Each structure stands twice: as structure tokens, then as C-alpha cells.
Amino acid sequence: MIVKSTEIKNNFGRYLKLLAEEDIIVTKNGTPVARITRQEGWDEGGGVCEEAEEYSFGGQKMSYEEFMEMYENTDQRYEYIDGEAYLLASPKFTHQKVIGNLYTIFRTWFKGKKCMPYLSPFDVTLVKNETNKNVVQPDLLVVCDPENKNDRDKYTGVPSLVVEILSDTSVRMDLIKKLNLYMDTGIREYWIVNYKKKEVAVYMFEKNNIIDMKTFVTDGTGGTVQSFLFDGLTAKMDEIFE
Questions:
Q1: 3-state SS class at 24
Q2: In a shared domain, residues 52 and 100
Q3: Domain end: 55, 87, 119, which one?
Q4: Cβ distance 59 to 37 under 8 Å?
Q5: Same domain (yes/no): 38, 68
């Protein structure tokens, strides 16, 4: 199947389902520029499971305006980092259990405080500079500036803390691209949770730099993760990974 790039952008969800039947050749100005193929790990319903490779929109750069036009016309979940769109995979059972455990811990600790935790899907727009806008959906985030929202009730601020649950296919994204993005856009603290190794890495950022970092591990006898930013915010490893 040969499809124009503008048609793909405007109706991506529909063409995603058609991948079960045949590959899609994407053209721009009449010239083939990319091939979209079905990969192992796609479920029968046409969705993407966690084992599938992260999807980059044809390996092509997109403008922020093009991304938003596509994003507003699809029911798929995307992130947009450094000019490239990524289709988010459906999370695994353990991923959801761990993030649910962490959210419960955060929700209890932040109760009655100005800052509040929120779960994905929750769009966050992060600006590196005038020409580099990014849209991400952290697995868990802590918002301390709830007044920053637009007339559509969309959050427009910068979270103070974000959490990502590491998976086999998100290592490069979470450890490199997102770490740099979060560090460069005003986020203060970043937790990377590895449920396979049962460890949590906590990074503290200031002035576009890492000023502190610690990895918390469990040897089966417990252990507690501690926040740099929020004095008193802790999470017992046994409770995170139970």
C-alpha cells in the first residue's frame, strides 16, 4: 500500500490497523521516504504490546505543529521528543502494578499538600528553546504548580518530579533521551524504576546539570528510596515491588 505522508499524519490510527494486511510505503512529494511494517509483538487487535520496538514516525523529523495536528486526530498515545514522534506501547501487568504501588505511596504522602501526584496518560509539554518543544507522558509525575493550565484544562507547567518505569524497549529512551530532556527543561528530580532488577535510580537536577544521584537496591531484606527534593518522601522497596 502506498500512502502520502500527509494522509498518514491525519489518519494514523486507521493505517496502523491496516498493517495486519500489508506494509505501508510512505511517500512525500511523490517519492517513497519510508516503509511501515508489522512487527512481532503486535497483538491481534492491532495494538502494540510492550515487547514491540518503540515506534518512530517513519524515522522522520516532524515539526511541533505537524505533531500536534496528528496527535489531535488520533486515539493513539504518543510522545514527541527532539522533533520525532514515538508511539507508546501498551504497558505490561507488572509495570502497572509497580506504578500503582508508587502512586499509592505518593498520594498518601502528598495528601493535604500543595503538590500532588498524577498518573499517565497526562501530557506534559517541555520546552528546551523556542524551536524545540517536546510532549511526553511520564508514568508518574508530581505537580506543584497546578495553577498553570490553559482554558482547555490542559496542564502547561513543569512537574517537580517525574517517574519512569523501565522496560526492555525503553532503556535508551528513559536513560538517555528523557534524562537529558528532563534535566534541560526545569524538572528537579527524576526516578527511574527497574522492576526486573528491583532497583530505583534517583537523579537530582539543577541548572541543567545532575547535582546528585543515588541508586537504591534491595537484597530481599528491604530498603527505602528517599527523595532529594521532598524532605521526608520515602518509598519502601518491598512496597514498591510487592
A1: strand
A2: no
A3: 87
A4: no
A5: yes
